[in-house]
Amino acid sequence: MTAQLHTLDGATDDPLIGQVVAGRMRVLARQHRGPRGRVYEVEPPGVGEVRHALKLLTAPEAREPEVYDRLQILADVARGIDHPNLEPMHGCGRLEDDTPYLVADWLPLPSLSSVLHLEGGLDRLRALQVIEAIAAALGALHARGLVHGDVRAEHILVQPGVGGFEQIVLIDAGIDAALDSPTARGLTGRLAHRAPEREGGRSASAPGDVYALGVLAWRLLAGRLPFRAEDLRAQGVDADPAERVRWLHRHALPVRPSLAGGTAVPAAVEAVIGRALAKRPADRYPDGDTLLDALDAARAGVGGPDDGAWFAGQGTTSHPALPALTLATAPADVAPRPLSPVGLAPWTLAGLACGVVGASFMHLLGG
User: Fold this and answer.
1) Which of 150, 180, 287, 306 is catalytic?
2) Catalytic residue at 287?
3) What is the pTM assigned to this prediction?
4) What is the pLDDT of residues 290-308, one digit of tens each?
5) Three-state SS across the chain?
6) pLDDT per residue over 71-83, tens digit each?
7) Domain containing 274 — which CATH number?
8) Which of 143, 210, 240, 304 has the most crowded CB, counting CB atoms within 10 A?
């Protein structure tokens, strides 16, 4: 869904505004409305209590019983995570009409996407600050067997400060994963950040989150997305721009961000981002903590040499570990590793486990 912004959508005709829902929350205003959900600012009972974000999941698949099972797993597990880069979650439930909802902190902060739109980009310090903060947030999720499922700038809230960001918060973790099903899989995860294996029908995973963060990191350093429909390598693939982007994610290596006119960073840091963008899940960092450790080592000049083979234009068309960049030829052992008891492996039995919920849902709202 859409990232939470400073202002609400100005709706005054919504029947929920002014009502008490779930027997305990008064709806103050609507923040956003879309075809797959709505976000409200609500006031819990009691004087002096902080306001919360009420997120209604109105997509057709949200009413499926297994989706609510996943949301309950999400609420139970996410409440136990206390991390400065993850938004706290307070629970889930159903309205009288059976619409599922999630309750999280109300954070009136600008999204990273709005900052990028206003400023045109970030300097190296702030870009690396965001990349490392989100890697740490994903590490906290992955350690509990949860996944985000849709890492992108719209799902990151920031508090600008002098010389950097004072606060960076990953929001909406796991919502797409909760709604992931064979009928809705093409609607989950934004295409520009979606890992190649998800186009092959696989569900969200920790390595998939690493890939999405790799896309975001490349964008922050280069000033644009690594794979775009106008890329000449996709000529003749399909007339549909979306199909060309899908093809590039599955077959084309990115160039170095610095060669795309972006911010200069050490080659070893670029190599970490290149590995995060590996086509096969098994070739990426397995989780956020491992990615963060690699970034720290690269910035400190510790570790192995720069691996330029993750990039195009290095005298090779693929990494040596990738004899062919197609899922059809990938070995059977490249499936994402099972997570914890509420992670991917048990999702086939008890539903997909989601991540910590953010303050709003742009992608699920159709934004």
Assistant:
1) 150
2) no
3) 0.80
4) 999 999 999 998 876 677 7
5) CCCCCCCCCCCCCCCCCCCEECCCEEEEEEEEEECCEEEEEEECCCCCCCCEEEEEECCHHHHCHHHHHHHHHHHHHHCCCCCCCECCEEEEEECCCCCEEEEEECCCCCEHHHHHHHHCCCCHHHHHHHHHHHHHHHHHHHHCCCCCCCCCHHHEEEEEECCEEEEEEECCCCHHHHHCCCCCHHHCCCHHHCCHHHHCCCCCCHHHHHHHHHHHHHHHHHCCCCCCCCCHHHCCCCCCHHHHHHHHHHHCCCCCHHHHCCCCCCHHHHHHHHHHCCCCHHHCCCCHHHHHHHHHHHHHCCCCCCCHHHCCCCCCCCCCCCCCCCHHHCCHHHCCCCCCCCCHHHHHHHCCCCCCCCCCCCCCCCC
6) 888 888 988 899 9
7) 1.10.510.10
8) 210
